[in-house]
Amino acid sequence: MRYGDDVLGVPEVCSSVVHAFDDIDAQAVALIGNALGGALGRQLELDEKARLLARLEAALQTTRAQARQYQDAALCDALTGLPNRAHFLQRLREMCERDDLADPFAVMFLDLDGFKQINDRHGHATGDAVLREVANDLGTRLREGDFIARLGGDEFVVLAPGIREGTRNVASIADDLQQALARTRPVEGVCLGIHASIGWVLHTPGSSASSLLARADAAMYAHKKRRRTGGESRAPGACVVDT
């Protein structure tokens, strides 16, 4: 039995009768063998193609999974697990381009006070732990629909949709965040209250992502300046560190 140049097998036809087959029988068997060889060869080809397709599909799925991992990594802050600057700007641009928003959204810009001193006094491991604490507090205190990101360093931003009561509502959110962060807690064996300056702006039609972020940044620095001049109290609370 042949398929192309390949020999796939040899059919054997037996009889207990001596000289049972003549030349015509031999030719018939040869024709049957050729037909069987063709059918078997085509089936083997199909099986091989199926195996090849299965391997290609598995390789494609692996490639897609790796691509998703790389994409996620490109849009994620490795330290806190929050979205990073690129991811935040992408989401902010999408929000600015929407024309079906029933309520305005706010951009909140948060910068930690005295973060360099924490690093200098307690070490970068404690500083990293503080940043993770901030990420956790933001995720706990804000709504499920709010988009939280770390811009870099000790800067965080929040995209808060559906602000129905305008600036007063954003102010209450910012005040709640400040109080939640300022509670004294053990961080890497050190009692710390995390103090932050927060600025915010409300989106108005026609505002671009870059202008909103710049305005929120400026509002944050204005808030930080007021805090430095003693306009707000930053009294620490009690903290007990297990030994």
UniProtKB/TrEMBL annotation:
PROSITE patterns: GGDEF. Residues 103-239 form the GGDEF domain. Signal peptide: none annotated. Gene3D superfamilies: 3.30.70.270. Transmembrane segments: none annotated. It comes from the Bacteria. InterPro entries: DGC-Regulatory_Protein (IPR052163), GGDEF_dom (IPR000160), Nucleotide_cyclase (IPR029787), Rev_trsase/Diguanyl_cyclase (IPR043128). Keywords: Coiled coil. It holds the Pfam family GGDEF. SMART domains: GGDEF. Residues 46-73 form a coiled coil. This is GGDEF domain-containing protein.
